[in-house]
Specification:
The complex is a heterodimer of chains A (about 90) and B (about 260). By secondary structure, chain A is α+β, with helices and mostly antiparallel strands. Chain A has two helices and four strands. In chain A, the strands form two sheets. In chain A, strands 1-4 form a two-stranded antiparallel sheet. Classes of the chains: A alpha+beta (about 90), B alpha/beta (about 260).
Chain lengths: ~90, ~260
């Protein structure tokens, strides 16, 4: 499964600002705590596909905890057209 | 995700370490915008950062540029000295409102009036954050702090100081703008303003000043989301966003233009 968004859970402070700006409202507060004792946010696997890679969450995050990747371009057969490793 | 370009990359001049800021504090966004502009203008090797006192003090840990730490409020005075000694350097200060608008008012005003070729990044969160939430000159009327537990009273303590308007009215400033980082739209506008504030002294036009409205959830006694909503609900009506001076655009000298 493609995961366009990833959270660095050790950096997240659970401020929930990303939840307010997500246009798809797929970012939710998890029940996990990180090593600093903050509750961390997550995107559940079942809604991961709806992420549009707009990166609004990453722009508003004060702790640089969010990485966002664009979905790779595909040709008509559904093959990945350009592959960037990073 | 292994294939696909990154939609958001952190600037290289920003140190990849956890910040000491409280959850939801927008200093993190403000310093990232500064780092992005330093990267875009390729200033990381010739920038000299002047740190201030307050929560902004650890800026030298987060930006991988040469730094000088100034006494409380004196960052514009130190920046003047650094710029005059090293005229080729891109000198900027990173200050909070307790630092810049209170104890550093004289230094800030005279630095701007002299038109020193420096950039001032002013993070306004309407309170003394690091020392425990005392009233600052920019505290809103009615806002409760530890030194005005009944709320700031305009009759006793006056109205909050609008620094950007003051700096824009001085002859030496080339660029003065107020921005916020409470929404994605405002963050993008803020980035442009910070960049212009860096370009003005580089182009030998005068001082660049940008005021960033930010939250202090801890001392506002709010959750980060409530604090972020307060920016739009209470702060922006009193501290209007916009470019108050830009000598590169003659039409905006006539009056404030909303930069949205």
């Amino acid at each position: 499964m493609e995961r366009p968004i990833a959270f660095r859970e050790d950096r997240c402070k659970g401020c929930a600002l990303c939840m307010t700006v997500c246009p798809k409202e797929i970012i939710t507060m998890s029940s996990r705590f990180n090593t600093s004792g903050y509750k961390v946010v997550e995107v559940r696997d079942e809604v991961m596909e709806t992420c549009t890679s707009c990166a609004a969450c990453a722009l508003i995050c004060p702790d640089y905890a969010i990485s966002v990747w664009r979905k790779p371009a595909r040709d008509k057969k559904g093959e990945v057209a350009d592959v960037h490793y990073g | 995700m292994k294939n696909g370009k990154e939609a958001f990359t952190l600037p290289g001049v920003l140190a990849d370490i956890p910040t000491h800021y409280c959850p939801g504090c927008q200093h993190g966004v403000a310093q990232r915008l500064v780092a992005e502009c330093l990267d875009e203008l390729a200033l990381s090797e010739k920038a000299i950062c002047i740190g201030s006192i307050g929560c902004s003090v650890f800026i030298y840990n987060y930006l991988l540029v040469d730094s000088v730490e100034a006494p409380h409020g004196r960052a514009p005075a130190v920046a003047t000295g650094v710029k005059r000694a090293r005229p080729e350097a891109a000198v900027f200060t990173y200050q909070g409102d307790g630092d810049l608008a209170s104890i550093g008012m004289a230094e800030t005003m005279h630095c701007a009036n002299r038109g020193e070729r420096v950039t001032i990044i002013f993070v306004n969160n309407t309170v003394y954050g690091m020392t425990g939430g005392q009233m600052a000159p920019t505290t809103m009327v009615g806002q409760r702090t530890t030194t005005c537990p009944g709320g700031r009273c305009a009759d006793n303590e006056g109205q909050p100081i609008k620094m950007t308007e003051i700096i824009a009215s001085l002859g030496g400033s080339a660029y003065a703008a107020r921005v916020a980082v409470d929404s994605v739209k405002h963050v993008r506008a803020a980035k442009k303003a910070v960049r212009k504030a860096f370009e003005a002294p580089l182009n030998n036009l005068g001082l660049g000043f940008v005021e960033i409205l930010a939250t202090c959830p801890t001392n506002w006694k709010m959750t980060p989301v409530q604090a972020n909503e307060r920016i739009a609900a209470e702060l922006i009506p009193y501290f209007p966003l916009g470019t108050f001076k830009d000598v590169t655009e003659l039409e905006t000298i006539e009056g404030p233009e909303v930069a949205e």
